[in-house]
Amino acid sequence: MRELPRTDPKDATVLADYARRNSDRLSWCKPSDEMLTHLRILNGRDTDLAADATRIANRLRDALLAVSPALERTVGSRLTTNRGLRETLTRWGNPTELKTAGRTRIRRVLAKYSTPRTTSKLVAAIWDALDAQTVIVAAETVWADTVRELAADLDSICERRKLLAEDIEAVFMAHPLGKVISTMCGFGPRTGARTLAEIGDPHRFDNASRLASYAGLVPIDWQSGSKTITRKPRGGNHRLKNALFTAAFVATRHDPCARAYYQQKRNQGKRHNAAVICVARKRCNIILTMLKTRTPYQQHHQQKNIKKTAPTHLK
Predict the structure, then answer these.
(1) What is the DSSP letter of 6?
(2) What is the DSSP letter of 185?
């Protein structure tokens, strides 16, 4: 079989020539500081644990659905947020065992991690689901072992994520820019740490349009002859895009300025996700200026001072 000629030198020549002719369009990489590298490592680990938690939670819900659909409807959506439910299923893995345990023992377990009012509602909801179960499925004992094992695995991962979140918050708030970006609505420790780690040095972006393009928030115009179609971008930094989208989604509910801009886009006929992306793109102007000038976000800043200092609200 004849070996194909290598084209690496040709590829390098093409890339070098493109860089020479389009130097103003390139974002040059600079050495990252130690804290940003630390954040990237922690963020990657948190992403892996989140994926594991989602997978095991879905498997656990599937097991609960097999033995009691009513019970799965009651507790399924709360498995990753309520540790009391996970511990309850770790001890009693099927409807028969839960009924044998009784209300008092279940209440005692749930009360360790929930308020009295929440505990009472959960116990009542669980008992209503158990009363709705009229048949005993085959191999209920085997399903109980599966439920207990999955609940224990899910609880372990959720607790590891909780400890990791504390480490992320400590590193994030110790960074000078972390204290700046955390003043903007929508950026908690996890979202802010991911945004800061993916942006890196803000001065490598000449303007907010470069940052938005890097994040994959700018639509792409596709042309064929006289026909032009605007398409959703598929490239960009997906981790940064997800973080900015999440922060914008939260801001549309709690930030009046972001909410007004979101509603404006909705009135123009855009769907929910498209409107949230518009908010995220608009907030890139504010974020980049905040990071470059190290100016905290001030929602009630006067309009006349926006051009002199960091942008503070959406126009």
Answers:
(1) P
(2) T
Q: Are 243 and 253 in contact (CB under 8 A)?
A: no
225: left (phi > 0), else alpha (psi -120 to 50), else beta? left
The structure tokens listed for 110 are 């749930």
Structure confidence by residue, pLDDT tens digits, 87-115: 999 999 999 999 999 999 999 999 999 99
pLDDT tens digits for range 179-221: 999 999 999 999 999 999 999 889 889 899 999 999 998 877 7
pLDDT of residue 27: 55
The greatest distance separating any two alpha carbons of the chain, rounded to the nearest whole angstrom, comes to 77
Best mean pLDDT range from 211-225, 228-242, 281-295? 281-295
Q: How many Cβ atoms from other residues are within 10 Å of residue 224's Cβ?
A: 7
CA pair distance 274, 270, nearest whole angstrom: 6
| pLDDT band per the 50, 70, 90 thresholds, residue 29 | low
- Count other C-beta atoms under 10 Å from residue 307's C-beta: 7
Spatial CB neighbours of 80, under 8 Å, sequence gap ≥ 6? 53, 54, 57, 154, 158
Using alpha carbons only, what angle is made at residue 241 by residues 192 and 307, rounded to the nearest 5 degrees? Answer: 70
C-alpha span between 114 and 231 (Å, rounded):
46
Q: Are 195 and 280 in contact (CB under 8 A)?
A: no
